[in-house]
Amino acid sequence: MDATLQVEHITLIGTGLIGASVGLALRATGFTGTITGIDASGTELETAERIGAITATARNPEAHAAAIAGSQIVVLAVPVLAILDWMGRIQPHLSADAMVTDTGSTKAQIAARGVSLFPKQFLPGHPMAGKESGGAALAEANLFQNAPWIFTPLHEPTPLETTWRDLVEKFGAKPIDIDPVRHDELCAWVSHLPQMVSTAMTAVLEDQIGDDEALRAIGGRALREMTRLGASPFSMWRDVAMTNQKPIADTLLALEQRLQHMRENLRTPELREEFLKANRFRARS
Known about the structure:
Blueprint: E1 9-13, H1 17-28, E2 34-38, H2 42-50, E3 56-57, H3 61-69, E4 73-76, H4 80-90, E5 99-102, H5 108-117, E6 122-123, E7 125-127, E8 148-151, H6 159-170, E9 174-177, H7 180-208, H8 213-218, H9 221-227, H10 234-243, H11 245-264, H12 269-284
Parallel strand pairs: 1-2, 1-4, 2-3, 4-5, 5-6, 8-9
Antiparallel strand pairs: 7-8
Domain Prephenate/arogenate dehydrogenase: 8-285
GO molecular function: NAD+ binding; prephenate dehydrogenase (NAD+) activity; prephenate dehydrogenase (NADP+) activity
Protein name: Prephenate dehydrogenase
């Protein structure tokens, strides 16, 4: 028998891009149980329900408690600080047989809180997928296709956690297990630094170019690619910065030092060495 048949009710706390995409991906796997959505935005809930990502909504504290108590799996798909808050709010209502997972972009603080609140019931997770903009209207069932879905397990897997992992694989994602502290260190390099660089570069261009159409007109593919992440919302990245401050600061310092080195060597062979290092890295990608 398919292990997923034991799950009849999943609650998604957060029905934006990631939460609604999880709901659509669940439906695409053939999941026929109840998917309840909880979101501070009534508009997001309505959109998620309209596109088929959820089958029910919970719109007040009493309905939230009932949905959580009746769920085998609760997925926290909100920004990191909201995840930390919701963990405390759901704990009194969670069934002893249920599990909690999340989709937060940082893991160390979430994992530490999970250990104290949900012994043997929490599997921290992070799907490395998304778009520059959020919202249920942009959700896709195949958003996680071929994307890493990182788990930072805190104990030996329970049968329900194994079921969730199986579902994630059916989404088309590639599960990877990493220590939560190591996760944050790695993501500072591969995800958080690129975002900060794009944001800084885009902000500088806004200051220097602004609405100068002539200068904007000559910006080609390189400019579009380098500034694409500049459209990302502060609301999400604020939480990432606040919960992964030191690793991000370390990567920014390393980049600052490298940029200074390049600026000081624009007319020396050292600049060639920087290009060669960059070429070697890209060749392995």
